[in-house]
UniProtKB/TrEMBL annotation:
Tetramer of two alpha and two beta subunits. It is found in: Cytoplasm. CDD domains: PheRS_alpha_core. PROSITE patterns: AA_TRNA_LIGASE_II. PANTHER family: PHENYLALANINE--TRNA LIGASE, MITOCHONDRIAL (PTHR11538:SF41), PHENYLALANYL-TRNA SYNTHETASE (PTHR11538). InterPro entries: aa-tRNA-synth_II (IPR006195), aa-tRNA-synth_II/BPL/LPL (IPR045864), Phe-tRNA-synth_IIc_asu (IPR004529), Phe-tRNA_ligase_II_N (IPR004188), Phe_tRNA_ligase_alpha1_bac (IPR022911), Phenylalanyl-tRNA_Synthase (IPR002319), tRNA-bd_arm (IPR010978). Keywords: Aminoacyl-tRNA synthetase, ATP-binding, Cytoplasm, Ligase, Magnesium, Metal-binding, Nucleotide-binding, Protein biosynthesis. The gene is pheS. GO terms for biological process: phenylalanyl-tRNA aminoacylation. This is Phenylalanine--tRNA ligase alpha subunit. The lineage of its organism: Bacteria, Pseudomonadati, Bacteroidota, Flavobacteriia, Flavobacteriales.
Length: 334
């Protein structure tokens, strides 16, 4: 009977203690076994009583073991195996978009609102798509305008120097009306400095339809610069590109508020942001478009320079160094 009292008080906080308890009572050399062995020595008139007590003890022990096991399981769920379920979760690290992507997406967004789609092409190009189709035949001096990285010569395979190559591919494969912008990485064999790199990013645009005029080009650029910079004053300076005629350089007026503004605009307030012009009829013909029926305009701008400007980044090399301390700063940008 004193064992019954002991068993009733039993609790265990580990599996080992439950097992110890089981062996003590139910094991091959356990107490219950002893009591049954003892049974034959008990006087006949007490046999019934003794038997009942031992049975009660055995059942109690079995119940206690079950109880202890299941309470141990519940507490592992709450604090052991799965930890404390009420503790705060692990923070989720959210990355930042790269400033080039932020600006590229802004440009795509602005042009998509006026019906331009996005086209892409290979970074490793042949001579035709990067040069010849664009009125830059072999030995044309204007090829020197863009120092080229060659992958192979004769036939020439190269790293594209502009995404005008994508426009050639697009014209070859699509019928007018065409409204497309071509974002992508381009390569030029230039000395690397704070202001220029041997690779950078462009968005070039192409619009081909019947009766497209220079006024359409100018209005499109005015729309773009207003949306992009919130500044509406632009000027077009006559320029030269082999694939457009007439050609122009687009400057946007940028107030001289910071030292970076001053440097970017060389102190004049006017900042050159892109080249543009009416697509040369010969280029249309090269790409299988009838230049008597169709005309169009094209423009091209560098994403990197715009990113430097908008985010006050002092050195273009920061854009390709992948320094986490730099990139982290763009978490809230978009
Ligand atoms: N392809 C020219 C460049 O990379 C930019 C440009 C595009 C100029 C379209 C005029 C028209 O410099």
């Amino acid at each position: 009977k004193e064992h019954i009292a002991e068993v009733e008080q039993f609790t265990a906080d580990t599996k080992e203690k439950v097992e110890e308890f089981r062996i003590k009572y139910l094991g091959r050399k356990g107490l219950i076994k002893d009591f049954f062995t003892e049974f034959k020595n008990v006087p006949a008139d007490q046999k019934k009583d003794f038997g009942q007590v031992v049975n009660t003890l055995q059942n109690l022990v079995k119940n206690k073991i079950e109880e202890a096991k299941s309470s141990l399981e519940t507490s592992t769920e709450q604090s052991g195996l799965y930890g404390d379920l009420t503790r705060p979760g692990n923070p989720i690290e959210i990355g930042a978009r790269h400033p080039i992507s932020i600006v590229k997406n802004q440009i795509i967004d602005i042009f998509s609102r006026i019906g331009f789609n996005v086209s892409e092409g290979p970074e490793i190009e042949d001579d035709w798509h990067n040069f010849t189709a664009l009125n830059l035949p072999e030995y044309h001096p204007a090829r020197d305008m863009q120092d080229t990285f060659f992958v192979q010569t004769n036939p020439d395979i190269l790293l594209r120097t502009h995404t005008s190559s994508v426009q050639v591919r697009y014209m070859e494969n699509n019928k007018p009306p065409i409204r497309t912008i071509s974002p992508g990485r381009v390569y030029r064999n230039e000395a690397i400095s704070a202001r220029s790199h041997c690779f950078f990013h462009q968005v070039e645009g192409l619009y081909i339809d019947k009766d497209v005029s220079f006024a359409d080009l100018k209005q499109t650029l005015q729309y773009f610069t207003t949306e992009m910079f919130g500044k509406s004053k632009i000027r077009l300076r006559p320029s030269y590109f082999p694939f457009t005629e007439p050609s122009a350089e687009v400057d946007v007026y940028w107030g001289l508020e910071t030292e970076t503004d001053y440097k970017m605009t060389k102190g004049t307030g006017w900042l050159e942001i892109m080249g543009c012009g009416m697509v040369d009829p010969q280029v249309l013909e090269n790409c299988g478009i009838d230049s008597k029926e169709y005309s169009g305009f094209a423009f091209g701008m560098g994403i990197d320079r715009i990113a430097l400007l908008l985010h006050q980044i002092p050195d273009i090399r920061l854009l390709s160094e992948n320094d986490i301390r730099f990139l982290e700063q763009f978490k809230s940008a978009l």
